[in-house]
């Protein structure tokens, strides 16, 4: 799969490196420092490169991974995403990353879908701190995987989200249509509270399953 990373920070940088290490083609974009994008591409290996958001947007699947306040900027730099599969991990947070600015009757994921008519949008990776990705990836061949919920209104985008989650080592949990992001995004604040608001360290993950499979 060719994956374009729009936003190469904690989420996009780490996930992109692991996607590339798993054999996907990855292009890192959107940072104020070109050297950071180049370093990520070097670390990720031969199947990775750095580029502009417009170049990243040529990939089959786009990972959208920016702070909510940067959304319009990165999308305008990416250009048309008509026909593309867009997996967003963005959580619609305020500047202090402490409060949701969208909720109850709408979600960040739905707002993104409305901004991108003609794109196939899924939400995934919103509810797990980036600090755990490397451990989940290293344990991907082991039984007892961590869960990660995703949602989409589009079957192709849902499949892409599930494939990306599986690539990292998560057991993907299909939570249903994109509107379920209204519940996933507040849940992301719960996992963030466990990760950053306790003294146990940030490498939290969770597991959902029917009781007899846990
Ligand atoms: N971090 C987590 O554990 C976590 C977990 C779940 C969901 N999320 C969500 O995932 C999304 C991404 O989070 P993150 O932690 O990866 O964010 P981040 O580390 O701040 O990375 C955001 C990206 O946007 C770029 N950027 C910011 N301002 C820019 C500007 N003015 N011009 C160009 N590039 C700019 C950053 O580049 P620079 O290199 O210039 O900083 C970086 O590439 C957010 O919506 C967040 O709520 C995060």
TrEMBL record:
SUPFAM superfamilies: NAD(P)-binding Rossmann-fold domains
Pfam family, one: F420_oxidored
Pyrroline-5-carboxylate reductase catalytic N-terminal domain span: 2-91
GO terms of molecular function: oxidoreductase activity
Keywords: Oxidoreductase
InterPro entries: NAD(P)-bd_dom_sf (IPR036291), P5C_Rdtase_cat_N (IPR028939), STEAP_metalloreductase (IPR051267)
Superkingdom as given in the UniProt entry: Bacteria
Ranges annotated as spanning the membrane: none
Protein name: Pyrroline-5-carboxylate reductase catalytic N-terminal domain-containing protein
Protein source organism: Kushneria avicenniae
